[in-house]
Amino acid sequence: MAKETTRSLRIGAAYVRVSTDGQMDLSPESQLDSILTYAKTNNIVIPKENIFMESEGRSGKRAENRPQFQKMIATAKTKPKPFDCILVWKFSRFARNQDESTFYKGMLRKKLGIDVVSISEPVLDGMYGRLIEMIIEWQDEFYSYNLAQDVTRGMKSKAVAGGYQCRPPLGYRIPYHKATPEIVPEEAEVVRMIFDKYVNSKMSIYALTKYLNSLGLKTSQGKQFEKRSVEYILQNPAYAGIVRWNRTCNATNQIRDRSEWIITDGHHPAIISKELFEKASERYAAEYRPKNAKPVEVTKHWLSGLLKCSSCGRTLSSCIRHRKNVATHHTFQCYGYLKGKCQANHYVTEKDIVPAVIRALEDAVESGTIDYEVRRPAPSESTKELETITNLLQKLKQKERRAKDAYMDGIDTLEEYKHNKVLIAEERSSLEASLEQLRSSRNDEETYSRDSRMMKNIRSVIDIINSDDFTMYQKNVALRSIVNKIVFNRETMHIDVYYYLIESQETRIK
Q1: 19 in catalytic set
Q2: Nearest-angstrom CA–CA distance, 333 and 320
């Protein structure tokens, strides 16, 4: 008898999954207990390495979204055969998509000789059993589809009513389940600073990212800022008190047509004004470059965006000309004229406009008497930055106390404590350097005269423009740091260069 019992033992695997849709599932532990009890009763041995349990709620619609399921299938394909059957609490735990269920069960049973058994839904052997199993799977998929529709309708209704139903971004927290998001003051200051520097100080997203990390600031997940995390903040209307829902498709994350979006005023408090958010959106849309597009350095001239039409005020668009036996060169024309919205032709080549601009810059340095307006952060903004850095330095003291307490309580080892102290010291050094730099910039005007600094900046820009070591984009950024716009009048062949000015300086094109 003992030999017969040994021969009847089978090696099994257990697959455990709970749903993401709030169903009345058994907990993962309860499912596993039931499976192990069934296995013991039916002479099935399940080794620890054959237990595949999803770590969190996972939808059963798509197999690729379930890492433990994929691991189980990969294990099943190994030689020799690792187990004889897979036990699940219900067939719906294996899959809720009948097409996928049929595919994987067919592969396991026909190619690998591994059966899939539902411990709570016993079925007969043979064709009738398979038919009953398919009916159960169809019912599970139908239930899942109906439930998804109900959930979607509920979420849509909540979005239309202005309800917020996403994970709170940086600057907000949800105090309890289903509560309206509330502002986290210290994080909100960081968000305001990001929008202000992007819109008013014209800081690039790349420069913003470096600046935030230099201050030791973190994202809502406690990680360093990346370009995409700054872009996410700048594109998130929640900061302006707006709810946007159904923008992307959950399955592919592709952006839906705007007609499918739901946009409404939310019940949560705004961190920034709608006007500031719109300005940020306008700049982002204007500078957005799709993947695989040519870099700005290749497609734009260093005068791009600065030349303006004297008739309508619109920007002169740049165009690259390619001709046989002639060197590639740029030309400029009024955007309004190209669209039929301006009657004045303002066509000009870089051969004519570039020398005039450089000559205007050189004349400004020689005269030393130009009118201009110094652009610098408003006192209120720099004060907020000082407060932000000061608060972060205060928090470092709390971190030091917690690190010391963790060591004294035996939670951290001496090595871990030393490592934490080094990290805190590095963060303090970075913050103190930023604080000193900010204070220095605020006192800069008392140290140097405005005129001498302005002349120095213009000379630096001239050197950059005349150098071959800088890209078109870098030259454009340099020129924008001192010039607001250059108005071109083709009829008189004049340019008016505005150095953030009260009055313009005129230069004739000869």
Answers
A1: yes
A2: 12
Catalytic pick among 8, 19, 157, 220? 19
DSSP assigned state of 248: B
Q: Does the structure show a pLDDT above 50 at 233? A: yes
508 in Cβ contact with 500 (< 8 Å): no
Domain ranges of the chain: 2-147, 172-287, 295-510
What's 2-147's CATH class?
A: alpha beta
- Which residues are CB-neighbours of 440 under 8 A, at least 6 positions away? none
Strand pairing category for 172-173 and 115-118:
unpaired
Average pLDDT estimate for 448-463: 80
Distance between CA 114 and CA 172 in Å, rounded?
Answer: 50
pLDDT tens-digit map of 114-124: 988 988 887 75
Please check the confidence at residue 354 and state whether its pLDDT lies above 90. yes
Q: Which residue has the higher pLDDT, 510 or 183?
A: 183
Length of the chain: 510
Single-letter code of the amino acid located at 191: V
* Architecture category of domain 172-287 in CATH: Alpha-Beta Complex (3.90)
In our burial notation (b when 16+ CB lie closer than 10 A, e otherwise), range 382-399 reads eebbeebbeebeeeeeee
CA-CA distances (angstroms) from residue 426 to 226, 393, 401, 402? 20, 12, 16, 17
- Dihedral sign of CA atoms 201, 206, 209, 211 in order: negative
Structure token pair of residue 293: 């597009």
Phi-psi region of 125 (alpha: psi -120 to 50; beta: other; left: phi over 0): beta
Beta bridge partners of 321: 329
End-to-end CA distance of the chain: 111
Q: With contact defined as beta carbons under 8 Å apart, do 505 and 496 qualify?
A: yes
Distance CA 491, CA 291 (A): 40
Q: Which two tokens stand for residue 402?
A: 């917690």
Rg (CA), the chain: 33
Instruction: Return the pLDDT at 381.
Output: 53
